[in-house]
Specification:
The chain has a single domain, classed as Response regulator (Rossmann fold). It contains 6 helices and 4 strands, in the order H-E-H-E-H-H-E-H-E-H. Strands 2-1-3-4 form a 4-stranded parallel beta sheet. The longest helix has 24 residues. It is globular, with a radius of gyration of 14 Å. 35% of the residues are buried.
Amino acid sequence: MSAQEEKKKVLFLCTGNSVRSQMAEGFLRAFGGDRFEVKSAGTAPAGVNPNSIAVMKEAGIDISGQSSERLERQMLEWADLLITLCGDARDNCPVVPPGVEKRHWPLEDPSHGEGTEEEMLARFRKTRDLVKQYVEGLIAE
C-alpha cells in the first residue's frame, strides 16, 4: 500500500464553502498533510471569502489558491471522515455512505453580523483560532 492510500481522507463541509471549511482545509493541509488528504465543499458554494484569505495569511497559511466547490456524491464516497462546520450543512448533508465517519464542529459564520471592518476581521480571527484548535485536536488523535 502506498503512502497516499494510507492517508486519512477528510472532507470539510459547510454551506458556502467560503469561510470555516476553507480555514479547516488550509490548517489540516498545512499541519497534517503528511497524514491526511483533505478537501472541502459546500451545499451552496459562494466562493472563498476574502476575509478568510486575509486572516489565514496572518496565521502564515495561504488559502488563496483554494476553490469553493459544490458537494458531490463522489466526495462523500471518497471520504473516510466528514466534518460539518455549521448546522445547515449538518442538517442538509445527504446520507453518508457506510464506513464514513461523521462529526460536527459547531462554528458560527463570522461573515454574518454588522460592524466596522476591524470588528468583522476580529470575528474572522476568532473563528480562525477556533478552527485551528479543532484541527489540532483532530491531528492529535
